[in-house]
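Every protein is a chain of amino acids, and every chain bends into a shape of its own. Below is the pair of lines this work produces for a single protein:
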Amino acid sequence: MKIAIFVSGSGTNCENIIRYFEASERVDCALVVSNRADAYALERAKRLGVPSAVVPKAQLNDPSVILPLLQEYGIAFIVLAGFLPMVPDFLIDAFPRRIVNIHPALLPRHGGKGMWGHHVHEAVKAAGDTETGITIHYVTSVCDGGEIIAQFSTPVAPDDTPETIADKVHVLEMAHFPEVLEQLFDEIAG
């Protein structure tokens, strides 16, 4: 199965996924797509020998640009790993139940428009939550509203800061995201 990883930032999850599947005979991280030319994830992909493409938001929303690109690489599944733009409906329709996202909180808490990265961790702290975590979910036209595939939690201590919360969430992302993806790919493959 050839997958594309969509990124907007530094790409730690992207690199983790690529490395996890490097030796796989069944999963090929075939393409990294970023909406930002300055995303460090593109450098990570280059170092790991994975082709990449920069697709700004206007082109992402153009079926005549993004669909042929994904077809060129034989993409069967899309993984959002720190990808910030909303995925257009035509892409969701072209990849039904074949686009997943990771969110740095336990949805439905702290999800929706504008809730990404440090904004989420600040909201967790401000709400006085005693736990947070990650949610891996299918992508729909509703921001962070798709069916939940898996969640993993970590405690939040009273003296945690948004930065220490982010560190705890990052540990969960590194440990669980690739494994959940592998389970999904195994189910699809039958």
